[in-house]
Known about the structure:
Layout: H1 2-5, H2 9-19, E1 24-26, H3 27-34, H4 38-50, E2 54-59, E3 62-67, H5 74-85, H6 87-97, E4 100-107, E5 118-126, H7 130-144, E6 147-153, E7 157-160, E8 163-166
Parallel strand pairs: 5-6
Antiparallel strand pairs: 1-3, 2-3, 4-5, 7-8
Helix pairs in contact: 3-4, 6-7
Amino acid sequence: MLDSLVTSKTRVKLLLKFFSHTNASYLRSLAKEFDESTNSVRVELNRLTDAGLLKAGDEGKTKVYRANDEHPFFQEIRNMVSKFLGLDQLLVQVVQRLGNVEKAYIVGDYAKGIDSGTIELVLIGREIDLEYLDFLVNKTYEKVQRKIKVSVMEAEIEEVGGILVFG
């Protein structure tokens, strides 16, 4: 979907990087991560910055880029990126097809906006189809290239002061 709307592969990678989670990065690390030339990454960073989608700031001698969360389309782009990555679909499938799922939580680094390469889920419910869950985890990895760790619990979770308490 996103790659058919945005024709530059480098621009798509940048949008995914900056709008899938709270992230800041600089030119050389992006070029290395994407296995692209610094020039092609610089051109796209400049275009996105000129459009107001990214903010650029100096940290010492390094120019650091991050998503502009004040841009009017910030949330819409973030939603598109999330759908592109399949996280919305994953949660919907988890809730609808795994059995009696009462609640599903994204926890860990990804919930904090840090992309460590692993998405952690906690599922609360009874009689959850673990075989189908394993299938979904593998399918999701193929699509989003992120490891999925799932914890299944039968006990109720309660949030107290921002901390999850297992009852």
